[in-house]
């Protein structure tokens, strides 16, 4: 009586069939909802080293191109700022020097009259001229120089040649760097080439004819 009671209280033994094909029907069984007995999913494949290196190199090249472009833009900006600053400084200097051209004209007239041959005024005039020349002031317009309409203003003309030169200077011209501050007032005459091509003057021709008649 007691043995029968112990057998009835034992837990039933269960078997789990993990076969994927049903032996009775021959059909493929569906995986259980809870995933029991299903094989583990394969781990994600690691990225290939070649593809990772290629992506890194591409990003590096892009960043390098951006840096080079920014560097070029900054260099252009610096050059533009330096050029504008220099132009502003030159304009300011030219404006100051232009106001002093009248003083230089007075000193030239005094020098021509012999008032600056000695004494303290000569020292002052020389120092002023040296200081302006160091800043970039240059004078032009001297007798014998070829006539240049972009630098000289002719107020009188003698002769009709094609190679005119400056015969007399009435007022010097000045330039500051490449900027012409004032044109020179000059008188123009024929150059040496024109005089040679023109031959003897009428007076010389008359004297030659008179000498021939006397003979």
What key attributes describe this structure?
215 residues, alpha+beta, Nucleotide Exchange Factor Grpe, Chain A, domain 2, 3-stranded antiparallel beta sheet, 3-stranded mixed beta sheet, 6 strands, 15% strand, disordered N terminus
How would you explain this protein's 3D organization?
By secondary structure, this protein is an alpha+beta fold. Among the domains are: 72-135; 138-203, Head domain of nucleotide exchange factor GrpE (Nucleotide Exchange Factor Grpe, Chain A, domain 2, Roll). 49% of the residues lie in helices and 15% in strands. It has six helices and six strands, in the order H-H-H-H-E-E-E-E-E-E-H-H. It has a three-stranded antiparallel β-sheet with strand order 1-4-5. Strands 2-6-3 form a three-stranded mixed β-sheet. Strand 4 and strand 5 form a beta hairpin. It is rod-shaped and about 145 Å long. The relative contact order is 0.07.
- Shape descriptor: rod-shaped
How many β-strand stretches?
A: 6
Per CATH, the superfamily of the domain at 138-203 is Head domain of nucleotide exchange factor GrpE
- Secondary-structure class: alpha+beta
The assembly state of the depicted protein chains is single chain
Low-pLDDT windows of residues: 1-5, 32-38, 200-206
CATH topology of the domain at 138-203: Nucleotide Exchange Factor Grpe, Chain A, domain 2
Look at the structure and give the CATH class of the domain at 138-203: Mainly Beta
| Mean pLDDT rating | 78
Order of helices and strands, N to C? HHHHEEEEEEHH
- Helical content (DSSP H or I, runs of 4+): 40-55%
Termini Cα gap: 190 Å
Task: Report the portion of residues in β strands.
Answer: 15-25%
* Largest sheet, strands/sense/barrel: 3 strands, antiparallel
């Amino acid at each position: 009586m007691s043995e029968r009671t112990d057998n009835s209280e034992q837990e039933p033994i269960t078997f789990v069939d993990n076969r994927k094909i049903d032996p009775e029907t021959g059909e493929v069984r569906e995986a259980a909802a809870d995933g029991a007995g299903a094989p583990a999913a394969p781990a994600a494949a690691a990225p290939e080293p070649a593809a990772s290196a290629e992506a890194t190199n591409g990003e590096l090249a892009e960043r390098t191109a951006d840096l080079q472009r920014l560097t070029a833009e900054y260099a252009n900006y610096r050059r533009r700022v330096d050029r504008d600053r220099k132009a502003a400084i030159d304009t300011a200097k030219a404006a100051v020097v232009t106001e002093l051209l009248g003083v230089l004209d007075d000193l030239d007239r005094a020098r021509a009259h012999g008032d600056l041959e000695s004494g303290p005024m000569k020292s002052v005039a020389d120092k002023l001229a040296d200081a302006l020349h160091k800043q970039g002031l240059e004078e032009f317009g001297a007798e014998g120089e070829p006539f240049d309409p972009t630098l000289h203003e002719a107020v009188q003309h003698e002769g009709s040649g094609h190679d005119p030169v400056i015969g007399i200077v009435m007022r010097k011209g000045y330039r500051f760097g490449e900027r012409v501050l004032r044109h020179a007032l000059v008188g123009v005459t024929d150059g040496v080439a024109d005089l040679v091509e023109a031959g003897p003057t009428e007076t010389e021709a008359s004297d030659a004819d008179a000498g021939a008649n006397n003979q």
